């Protein structure tokens, strides 16, 4: 898909592309939505969607308050992360608090807690987490556990335990911000939206209206029609990608550790895959509506759900993991995250790049072929 | 009442006649539920651990074995070189590096404290946080055992009588989901999301199509009142969505073994109330939009808010205040919460009453709004 060699062919192709660009610019509503949706998503994911847990509501069951239980309660209350919502004399009301979503963790202290400690008897603490959300429950319980451990050490009640200090480092994403993780995936989604969905709709619209027939009798070759259709959307796609990157970097300081040129090059490759898919869908469907549905089900859904963009692939069952191997976005997201967050070069990413190149070749050949066949 | 009956008969006939669409309405959400329930999981799987043991003692090896035998970690590699471990992480062969420094055992014995470094690949932030809390628990359990195993512990060294070493014993329990099954948590929420999106899209496109075809003008000159018209549109789609919800609930119970601790009748009853609000919003969209395409784009936008601001994927209380405000305007948020509370925790009518009350208000408000908006157009 390079430029046409004969100068006489350049004229109609350029004219055709100008017509395409005018089509795109004229539909203001669609253009606005195409530009605004990704930006809105960056904002939502950057500001609103966080998985870090900042505020844990603790209910303490303290049957016999004494110096030790008060010390522990103070300790919990003094930590920023915790709010003690209620202190209960027995555990019977704990269930209601959980059911009404008014507490996250229950700390049930043994009766005569301080007296037991003083006498050197084991003093039990039950840590009850609302684990209906498994990840949230586990994390919250671990936070409370850590505070109780500190408390025990301070009271000299750790049973002579030694202390192994766990020094953790969160690499590539120290603040655990989901926006960092999400922006590479969003780039993939934008490219899919513009390249696959819009190309499919635009091509099938010409088909539906019968204007494709007029194009056919023009001096344009079939591949020129495809190139003319595809290039403006390629430009639009890359523009929105740069817009998203600028917003992500400008507002959220999403790191960009690797080379921009490498990322754009890979984005171009991924755009080609999506365009080929779009052309293929348009060639295989008969109406705008079915093309739209085909593009949604065939490209958008798998690219959003089965690419590791939001949901980790490692957590999926084996049969679904196998499906993800044919989802192009899966490979592109690995590349984009690698370049942006890890700052790795092409050395670490050649395998994924090869997969994308292979997909491009197969899909392009299939797209041009099925298009040719329809036109013949 | 008679007019309404005629309207309803017409709507039902139209729906039943289009077999293709009927199949799509009834089958597609079930397929989506099957797919999404498997795909949409933040379940944290075994992290691949690369062990860099610079201490080479019984204690350090035991610590690594402890991590591996917990079922939370699997060994990706083991060596004495940080450079090798780094390379493994960059090649995505390892998720976690545990680095045990030289003199780990000696420091533990002499000073009762020694550091262990844990480096996590945090590209997936949520999973990294959970893995860290697992590692923290395992390491502190191990430390507690080490201390207990030492004869007399530190107390003996200081010359105080050993038997009186006091200790706090913490036992953790995970209520409502002891197996930490992610599907139990997600499937009820996904079901709400799916019937909402299908229902909204269906309603939104329905009136706009009548507009496009021109049959809306015909209806406008008949003696049908506005409320009758809106009700005539709402009731058939509402019954379909409710049926869909029932099918989805059965799939959730049979295929995914989602616990049904609370009353299923209660959940279905709330769904009936909730769907009035959800479909009412779809109707309202359809009175605003001029064409089917516009209706579809507006629904797309709503979908984004419905999905992301509902607490389905991320905890609501981790959001900043303004985002929580938006979430409180989102009817999906209330029903997702009610579903989880009733099905997982067995909440009863009195527990969920405030949330149900909001949904009732919401439904009444949206219905009135849709009727008024429609009137403007037809005038």
Summarize the topology.
The complex is a heterodimer of chains A (376) and B (379).
Chain A: H1 7-26, H2 28-48, E1 56-61, H3 67-78, E2 82-88, H4 94-99, E3 105-109, H5 113-119, E4 122-130, H6 134-154, E5 163-171, H7 178-209, H8 211-217, H9 222-252, H10 260-284, H11 288-305, H12 318-324, H13 328-342, H14 350-375
Parallel strand pairs in A: 1-2, 1-3
Antiparallel strand pairs in A: 3-4
Chain B: H1 2-17, H2 19-39, E1 47-53, H3 58-69, E2 73-79, H4 82-90, E3 96-100, H5 104-111, E4 113-121, H6 125-149, H7 153-157, E5 167-175, H8 182-213, H9 215-220, H10 226-254, H11 264-288, H12 292-308, H13 321-328, H14 331-345, H15 349-378
Parallel strand pairs in B: 1-2, 1-3
Antiparallel strand pairs in B: 3-4
Helix pairs in contact in B: 1-10, 2-8, 2-10, 8-10, 8-11, 8-12, 8-14, 10-11, 11-12, 11-14, 11-15, 14-15
Describe this structure in words.
- The complex is a heterodimer of chains A (376) and B (379).
- With 376 residues, chain A is an alpha/beta fold.
- Chain A contains 14 helices and 5 strands.
- In chain A, strands 2-1-3-4 form a 4-stranded mixed β-sheet.
- In chain A, helix 1 packs across helix 9, helix 2 runs antiparallel to helix 7 and helix 7 runs antiparallel to helix 11.
- The radius of gyration of chain A is 29 Å and the shape is elongated.
- Chain A starts with 6 loop residues before the first helix and ends with a helix.
- The N terminus of chain A is likely disordered.
- Chain B is an alpha/beta fold and 379 residues long.
- In chain B, helix 3 links the parallel strand 1 and strand 2.
- About 3% of the residues of chain B have low confidence.
- Strand 4 of chain A pairs parallel with strand 5 of chain B, so a sheet runs across the interface.
């Amino acid at each position: 898909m390079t430029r046409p060699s004969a100068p006489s062919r350049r004229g109609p192709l350029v004219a055709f592309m100008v017509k395409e660009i005018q089509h795109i610019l004229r539909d203001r509503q669609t253009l606005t939505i195409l530009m605004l949706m990704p930006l809105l998503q960056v904002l939502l994911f950057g500001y609103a969607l966080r998985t870090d847990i900042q505020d844990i509501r603790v209910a303490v069951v303290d049957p016999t308050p004494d110096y030790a239980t008060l010390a522990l309660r103070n300790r919990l209350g003094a930590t920023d992360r915790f709010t003690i919502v209620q202190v209960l004399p027995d555990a019977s009301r704990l269930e209601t608090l959980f059911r009404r979503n008014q507490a996250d963790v229950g700390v049930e202290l043994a009766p005569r807690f301080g007296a037991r400690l003083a006498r050197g008897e084991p003093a039990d603490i039950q840590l009850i987490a609302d684990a209906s959300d498994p990840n949230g429950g586990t994390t919250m319980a671990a936070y409370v556990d850590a505070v109780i451990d500190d408390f025990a050490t301070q009271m000299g009640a750790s049973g002579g335990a030694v202390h192994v200090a766990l020094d953790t480092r969160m690499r590539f994403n120290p603040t655990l911000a989901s926006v960092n993780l999400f922006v590479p995936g969003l780039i993939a989604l934008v490219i899919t939206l513009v390249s696959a969905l819009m190309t499919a709709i635009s091509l099938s619209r010409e088909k539906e209206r019968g204007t494709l027939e007029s194009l056919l009798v023009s001096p344009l070759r079939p591949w020129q029609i495809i190139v003319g259709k595809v290039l403006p959307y390629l430009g639009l796609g890359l523009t929105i990608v740069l817009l998203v990157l600028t917003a992500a970097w400008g507002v959220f300081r999403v790191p960009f550790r690797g080379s921009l040129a490498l990322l754009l090059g890979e984005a171009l490759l991924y755009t080609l895959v999506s365009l080929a898919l779009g052309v293929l869908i348009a060639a295989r469907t008969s109406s705008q509506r079915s093309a739209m549905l085909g593009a949604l089900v065939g490209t958008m859904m798998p690219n959003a759900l089965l690419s590791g963009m939001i949901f980790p692939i490692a957590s999926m069952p084996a049969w679904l993991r196998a499906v993800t191997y044919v989802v192009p976005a899966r490979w592109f997201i690995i590349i984009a995250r690698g370049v942006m967050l890890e700052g790795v070069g092409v050395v670490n990413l050649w395998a994924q790049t090869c997969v994308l190149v292979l997909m491009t070749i197969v899909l392009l050949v299939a797209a041009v072929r099925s298009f040719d066949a329809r036109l013949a | 009442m008679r007019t309404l009956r005629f309207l309803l008969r017409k709507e039902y006939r139209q729906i039943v006649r289009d077999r293709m669409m009927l199949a799509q309405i009834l089958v597609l959400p079930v397929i989506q539920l099957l797919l999404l329930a498997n795909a949409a999981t933040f379940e944290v799987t075994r992290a691949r651990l690369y062990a860099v043991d610079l201490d080479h003692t019984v204690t350090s090896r035991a610590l690594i074995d402890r991590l591996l035998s917990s079922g939370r970690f699997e060994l990706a590699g083991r060596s004495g070189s940080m450079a090798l471990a780094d390379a493994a992480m960059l090649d995505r062969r390892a998720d976690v590096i545990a680095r045990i420094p030289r003199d780990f055992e000696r420091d533990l014995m002499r000073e009762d404290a020694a550091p262990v470094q844990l480096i996590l690949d945090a590209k997936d932030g949520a999973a990294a946080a959970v893995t860290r809390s697992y590692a923290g628990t395992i390491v502190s359990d191990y430390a507690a055992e080490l201390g207990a195993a030492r004869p007399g512990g530190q107390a003996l060294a200081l010359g105080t009588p050993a038997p009186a070493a006091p200790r706090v014993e913490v036992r953790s329990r995970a209520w409502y989901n002891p197996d930490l099954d992610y599907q139990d948590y997600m499937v009820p929420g996904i079901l709400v999301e799916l019937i909402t999106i299908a229902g909204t899209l269906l309603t939104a496109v329905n009136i706009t199509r009548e507009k496009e075809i021109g049959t809306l003008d015909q209806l406008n000159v008949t003696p049908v009142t506005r409320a009758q018209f809106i009700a005539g549109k709402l009731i058939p789609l509402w019954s379909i969505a409710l049926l869909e919800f029932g099918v989805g609930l059965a799939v959730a119970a049979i295929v995914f073994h989602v616990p049904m601790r609370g009353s299923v009748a209660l959940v279905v009853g709330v769904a009936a109330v909730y769907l009035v609000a959800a479909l009412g919003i779809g109707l309202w969209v359809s009175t605003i939009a001029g064409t089917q395409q516009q209706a579809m784009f507006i629904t797309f936008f709503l979908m984004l808010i419905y999905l992301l601001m509902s607490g389905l994927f991320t905890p609501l209380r981790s959001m900043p205040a303004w985002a929580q405000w938006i979430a409180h305007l989102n009817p999906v948020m209330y029903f997702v919460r009610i579903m989880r509370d009733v099905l997982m925790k067995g909440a009863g009518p009195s527990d969920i009453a405030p949330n149900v009350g909001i949904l009732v208000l919401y439904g009444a408000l949206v219905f009135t709004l849709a009727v008024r908006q429609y009137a403007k157009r037809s005038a």
